[in-house]
Amino acid sequence: MRPVKKHMKDMHFTRKELLEMARDKNRKLPRHLKDCPECRQEWELLQAFPVAGQLPLPDAPSGWIEKAVALGKKDRLLGKLKTLIAELTFDSWKIPQPVGVRGDALQDQRRLRFQADKIGVDIRAEHADEGWVFVGQLSGVEIGEAVLKVGKRTVQPDPHGFYQWSSKTPPGEIFLQAGEASIKLPKIKWTKSKPR
Amino acid sequence: MAVHKSDIELWEEILQNRPESWKELVSRYQRLVYAVATRSGLSLADAADCFQQTWVLLYQNRRKLKDPSRISAWLVTTAKREAMRLSRLVEKDSGGEVDFEEPDPSPLPDVALERLECQIHLELALKQIDSRCRRILEEFFFAAEEESYEDIARKLGFATNSLGPIRRRCLEKLKEILISNGYLGERKTD
Prior knowledge:
Chain A is of the alpha+beta class. Chain A has helices spanning about 15-25, 30-35, 35-50, 60-70, 75-80; strands at about 85-90, 110-115, 120-130, 130-140, 145-150, 155, 160-165, 175-180, 180-185. Chain A is about 20% helix and about 30% strand.
């Protein structure tokens, strides 16, 4: 390509000339470009940003952006709960039994609900011959986001979000764990005090 | 005008679980990831996966990211890798048959990715500058190659001889913004 010559102090390069020089990095730079700070600055910026003739980048569809933004919202809730102990808000063994039902009739089933901020943990327990069967369900977290730690066991949710496990004895400590956050469920007594 | 936070400042806030900072980061670079995903020869559905997975990976690896000042480069590289992975899956699903009628589906070459990255930094800096300078500089950078300064001055309604000094001052402002954003300082311009 023909070298561009500029000798006169006031004759600045045209935009086209600057663009051509900015693109060709192996080109020997004309004297004027070295001596003229104005042309030099324009040339430097055009070289750093070779975008002439292009359109500004378009936005992604709003639905795509919203999904990406939503990634950052989960941890706010869970992040606050790092050391939180959930509260027992419902225990079916503590409600008065219906008239006519004998004292121990409902003792083979138990429903518990725990709450920690906006996260709810529902556990249904059923006593069978071999031991206990448990089904847990979480609200306030997405399916698959959290696991239950029951003693040494880690219980993963099934595709519908249910946590199912069984054991010969009632559970000791239960934790809900999501990433670095964990919620401890209060320890529950599994023996009913005998009526006086 | 809202205070512009650097990528490093935003990143520190993201590590403190501030969703509004994550939102700002996504909004800052969504066009860059979108450009890589949609220009890599993927179908729209695969481009959507590529876009989403890039952000998921960034979020999942947020505590491992060593240099948050290079976040745009990280996004470009990750989006490119995701595009390549998805392209391979598509090829595998089609039994390795290549349709020669279709345009080349290979991901963008590195030089094109670098250009996209520098374009987003320029666009971000232009958003930070005052509106008059923005108008002038958008023409300076994005106008068609053959457009002269006279054409641009006419389009903007300036006298040709007054455009030069205004443009110069605007370019100085832009340069300061690019340096404070940490972008221009790390690039070799000569």
